[in-house]
Amino acid sequence: MKSLIASLAIIAACSATALAQQTPPAAPVAAAAPTRIAADPAIEETDTIWAKPGGVDLAATIFRPKGNSALLPILVDIHGGAWSSGSHESDRLYCIELAKSGLVVISVDFRQAPQVQHPTSSADVAAAVRFARMNSKMLNANPLKIGLIGSSSGAHLALLESLRPEAPQHKGTPISNSPLSKTGANFATHDEVTANVNYVVAMWPVSDPAARYRYAQRAGIESLKRGSESYFKDEANMWDASIPRIVTAGEAKTLPPILVVQPGNDANIPQDMTFDLLHAWQARGGKLDYVFYPGQPHAFGHRPSEATTDLVKTVAAFIKRQNEK
């Protein structure tokens, strides 16, 4: 089921097959919303307001394994939803399971369209990294070991933040100084705190918003088309936020290791777009892992299954390798 990208030649060979997928499927189906995953007795959960930009409360859930007093690495989770829907609640399944592997997982909400447009969500994602690093002592977590994980459009935002962690447009979100308190927190910008991350896990990523927008047009997936238009407004902004373009053009300020997850039956993410991401990362000397799940739909990792169990193990192993460096 799993395959590690070892060379550009391997990806190129795969790309030839993927080109056939440029014609959209006859009847693309949006992923069904997952049911809420119950709390796990092995995990301590803390709900908090982590940021307050423009008076808007942004919620988060912090997951930590009970009884583990070690200084744990941090994983910040960014949910999907075509930049315009969803919440941190949708990622509970793998947040809980990854916390069990020995991580402090912080799943955050952020501002979305139609209330805001690009690059506001990216500013909040960078602020979430700063929030985790600034409050690491209170979380009993390691500020030197922070990674991002994202799903779909959340994976795009995670990748974009990792490439532009200190960009001026990714600053200005007021964050809490009291992550374990539901009341009494003070909110202020802390843009002096670095937003660099050690790695990114990109699950079924919308790595090129412009390419996905055109795909959604061809495939007639109106919800994805509307989400793109609502957040980016035009293709110029989509192109500005294209991960392969940024990397290929040499605009990336950092190029952390990434794990890219691609379902084989993903009606929302054309495989050739993912291969463009892999090509770009390798061409600039970036380190990456790639895993392919035949027959699985978009966002399969939000629901219990054998494939999801395998996915969590794969992601946990990748994160462990990064944190051992």
List the keywords.
single chain; 325 residues; alpha/beta; Rossmann fold; 8-stranded mixed β-sheet; two-stranded antiparallel sheet; 10 strands; 34% helix; globular; disordered N terminus
Description:
Strand 3, helix 2 and strand 4 form a beta-alpha-beta unit. The chain has a single domain, classed as Rossmann fold (3-Layer(aba) Sandwich), CATH 3.40.50. The chain is built from ten helices and ten strands. The N terminus is likely disordered. The protein starts with 7 loop residues before the first helix and ends with a helix. The radius of gyration is 18 Å and the shape is globular.
- Strand content of the residues, in percent? 15-25%
Structural class: alpha/beta
**What integer value in Å does the Rg equal?**
18 Å
- CATH second-level architecture: 3-Layer(aba) Sandwich
| CATH homology-level superfamily | Alpha/Beta hydrolase fold, catalytic domain
CATH T-level fold name: Rossmann fold
Count all strands and give the number: 10
The biggest beta sheet reads: 8 strands, mixed
Q: How far from one another are the termini?
A: 27 Å
Summarize model confidence as the mean pLDDT.
90
Spell out the helices and strands N to C.
HEEEHEHEHEEEHHHHEHEH
Query: Percentage of helical residues?
Result: 25-40%
* CATH classification, class level: Alpha Beta
Low-confidence spans: pLDDT under 50, at least 5 residues? 1-33
Q: How many separate helices?
A: 10
Main-sheet strand order equals: 1-2-4-3-5-8-9-10
Q: How many independent structural domains? A: 1
> Rough shape?
globular
